[in-house]
Amino acid sequence: MTEQTAQKKRRSLVLAALVAITAGATLACGTTYFEIPIETPIRAKLDVSAFQRVLIAGFVAGGTDDVDANQETVRLLRSQLRSKSSLRVIDADVMELAAIAQEQNKTAVGGEDSAPSRAAGGSAATSSDEKAAPLPLPLEIKDEKDLEPYERLFANTAYWKQIGEEYQNPLIVTGTVLFMPHSRSGFVSRDVEDYDSFGRRRVRPVRTYMERKGFILRPKFIFIDGRTGATIHSQSHREEVLYNAQQNTPALSSYFELMDKVVPDFLQALSSQKIRGTRVLLK
Amino acid sequence: MPIVGSIPVMTFRIATCITLLTVALATPLHADARSDAVAQVDFGITVAQRGLWREAIYRWERAVEIDPTYAAAFNDLAVGYEHEGQLEKARQAYEKALALEPDNAQIRQNYDLFKEINDRTDGAKETP
Fold first, then answer.
1. pLDDT digits (tens, 9 = 90+) for A162-194
2. Least crowded by CB within 10 Å, which of A71, A153, A175, A208?
3. Residues of A in contact with B106 (CB under 8 A)
4. b/e string for A52-80 if b means 16 or more Cβ within 10 A?
5. ipTM of the predicted structure?
6. Is-above-0.80 flag for pTM?
């Protein structure tokens, strides 16, 4: 009897010890974590220490007539740079670069009739003289293809140097902005709420075929050294937004919605940014 | 004869003794290294929560030196580097932490968030 009690006691002790060891190990090995806010500093892509001023000159813009993408982009970038950059923003009239490019093209060809309309621009040149002439500039810019011939304006260092001299050698920001309507139809997944036979609420994903329309924004920012007229950096972006076909969203509102996504990257080229986030610290 | 026969037995016993001794000595050493590293990590977390990130990084660097198998210390170090904008060092530390604990969801989440920022930094097309 005494032997049995002693054995039971020993077993209980062994069990208790095992439980204690397991609990200890769980406590020791179990990971404790702490959420902590962090701010990641991102250095500017460009060294703009040589410049004190920035000229947002203007953009070759196209896509839709609902928004003047040239005016709106210049206004938006100037206001952003005023509050988020140490560079002084030059207040100047917005340059109509599409018209300037047309003028330069006329001069290059040496004739008044060399800037064809969009319809005429499509015809292929056949004679050897025409082959040597620069690509015609479409008057109406509807897509990326129409913008391509305008690229040579940004390579015209003499022109940009002259603009630089005019504004006392600032950093010049220019480029192209395409803001065009877009529609797409296809299957879209959305959550549908319903109740089962017991009256319980359920949310389940349902795939439905939908007609959607919206806009595409394709800006290309070109940074030019006003002292030399040479391009020092360029960056391209593409953003799109689609809405339900029945939804009537103003083009200007969509433009700002899309530019909101692009502006942080634009600013990052010129000034250091801090990106806020949360991370988990582990023990 | 019995003396000759006992030589392999003795060798086996000596080998066993050496192995046991090594294990006995190594286990507390490793445990000591880990507990020292945990102390450094703990202190690092406390000072990071008060905004003293440089001190925190110093502590976590000490922790990974003391115990290079401590994934949590590498994770915390990566977060510290990220906060200081040392993105390349942060990437290396996250990768080390994930190599040590590939299934740790919290380290993976931190790393994914870090990569998002890194992609944004390199995202836009650059042409000279």
1. 999 999 999 999 999 999 999 888 888 878 888
2. A208
3. 31, 33, 280, 282
4. eebbbbbbbbbbbeebbbbebbbebbbeb
5. 0.75
6. no
